[in-house]
């Protein structure tokens, strides 16, 4: 049923299933696109050192025969206190990408004493908004339910993402406790709440004039946002509003770290969201990687400082002695 509904919306938008299903957002293709302007970069390694334990291809949620999987990376040394945990959501315009895109960051976080899980989630056209939010909350719930097994502190969980994954992570975190974004909440005693949010170059407001300039402009092929939200702004105004993290800021919103590239279009709404966070006394921080392309986190020399900024924020906010 979900797929049929998604397919109908895609056909209305003028996109064939074959076009929508292409998943060409890989580190290799992105490197080829960036290599002329950034000849010094290289794809960050996905090989874990001996100090990191890797638990791969774990099913974290299922819907009938459909299962979603994650890879968990954690410190090999487990003699101290349980570690903070973080769910990592890859980007790709809500319709592409792979969880291995954030494996290098997950490994570096594990080296820093933080358990990190990279997740696969349902992409368009299989499922449109808000399915990815459901999946990310399910991943948080899985991590909390299995925290003891993996030496994780269930009260210290963060959600992080890059690009479209940054928007997904933000919306997941700012909607803590809202059952309309969490179908499992009615039947589970385990919370899906996140205590921190990390948004790497992801939109905070689909409805702003600048966002709509890029995401809602007339063109031959609809934008990724139009596809994921099921129509243009005029057709799906309520959805564009609902999917914007900025509208959920309140006194209970978790602290947020924003990592930014040199491409301002990808973090539209951030400054206004920070203003609203400040009104409620919610901590936030911005770390900017100037003169970088959008997908900077995939590559050295930028991946390591990005991971370090995330680890520092998590430790600072949780005051973890690790």
TrEMBL record:
GO terms for molecular function: hydrolase activity. Residues 1-20 form the signal peptide. Keywords: Hydrolase, Signal. InterPro entries: AB_hydrolase_fold (IPR029058), BD-FAE-like_dom (IPR049492), GDXG_lipolytic_enzyme (IPR050300). Residues 70-259 form the BD-FAE-like domain. The keyword Ribosomal protein does not apply. This is Alpha/beta hydrolase. It comes from Gilvimarinus xylanilyticus.
């Amino acid at each position: 049923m979900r797929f049929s509904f998604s397919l109908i919306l895609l056909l209305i938008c003028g996109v064939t299933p074959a076009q929508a299903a292409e998943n060409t957002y890989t580190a290799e293709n992105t490197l080829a696109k960036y290599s002329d302007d950034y000849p010094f970069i290289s794809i960050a390694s996905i090989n874990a050192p001996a100090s990191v334990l890797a638990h791969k291809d774990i099913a974290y949620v299922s819907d009938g025969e459909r299962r979603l999987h994650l890879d968990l990376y954690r410190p090999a040394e487990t003699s101290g206190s349980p570690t903070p945990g973080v769910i990592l959501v890859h980007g790709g315009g809500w319709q592409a990408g792979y969880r291995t895109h954030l494996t290098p960051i997950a490994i570096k976080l594990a080296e820093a004493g933080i358990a990190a899980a990279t997740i696969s989630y349902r992409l368009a056209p299989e499922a449109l908004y808000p399915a990815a939010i459901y999946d990310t909350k399910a991943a948080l719930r899985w991590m909390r339910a299995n925290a003891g097994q993996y030496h994780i502190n269930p009260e210290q969980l963060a959600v992080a993402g890059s690009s479209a994954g940054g928007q997904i992570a933000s919306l997941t975190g700012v909607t803590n406790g809202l059952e309309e974004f969490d179908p499992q909440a009615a039947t589970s005693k385990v919370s899906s709440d996140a205590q921190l949010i990390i948004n790497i170059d992801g939109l905070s407001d689909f409805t702003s004039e600048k966002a709509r300039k890029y995401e809602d402009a007339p063109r031959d092929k609809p934008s990724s946002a139009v596809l994921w939200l099921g129509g243009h702004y005029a057709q799906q105004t309520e959805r564009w509003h609902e999917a914007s993290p900025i509208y959920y800021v309140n006194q209970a919103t978790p602290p947020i770290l924003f990592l930014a590239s040199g491409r301002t279009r990808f973090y539209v709404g951030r400054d206004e969201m920070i203003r609203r966070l400040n009104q409620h006394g919610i901590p936030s921080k911005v770390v900017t990687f100037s003169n970088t392309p959008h997908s900077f986190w995939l590559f050295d020399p930028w991946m390591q400082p990005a991971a370090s900024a995330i680890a520092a924020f998590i430790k600072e906010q949780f005051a973890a002695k690790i």
